[in-house]
Amino acid sequence: MRILVCLSLFLMSSAQAETNVAFPPDYRQWTHVKSMLIEPGHALYEAFGGLHHLYANATAMQGYRRGGTFPEGSVIAFDLLAAQSGGHSVIEGERKVLGLMKKDSKRFVETGGWGFEAYAGGDPKKPLVGDKAAQACYACHTAREQDDFVFSSWRD
Ligand code: HEC
User: Fold this and answer.
1) Which of 23, 63, 148, 156 sits 20 to 30 Å CA-CA off 104?
2) What is the chain's percent helix, strand, coil content, to nearest 5?
């Protein structure tokens, strides 16, 4: 009996495999760090074209404010929306993807101490990255190794 309970618990936990970074339902309440519009013709248009906003949780804000390394538990969100232009203005369209970085140095030794995950359309049930983080995300973020792998910086 005890074996059966253990087995079913194991099966349940492997069925709901942990994602690299859990979907943070409240990220729109975090601090807005910056926004950027990536237009057609930009080298990263295929992957990141559109209008993105970056948000930092309170722990990540300590990292942004002091510069250098980010404390354990820092989470930064990359909220990418389609950009709709017309009438000499650009407005937010549908959410394309929610990208996330979470600092957990023990768990993510291979990727600079950061876990990388992305949710298609901002849907918590659609994680995209999984075991592809090193190639899909970290490889490019290594360009900012001196800034703890974070590209953006804080402005007042
Ligand atoms: C080709 C390079 C490249 C790849 C690949 C890439 N990123 Fe980024 N990432 C950037 C750049 C450049 C920025 C800064 C954007 C800005 O300043 O608005 C950024 C910013 C971020 C941020 C905000 C923190 C920061 O570094 O400024 C997060 C979170 C993020 N990316 C997650 C991801 C995830 C998750 C993946 C993989 C699915 C990924 N990135 C793949 C280039 C990349």
Assistant:
1) 156
2) 35, 30, 35
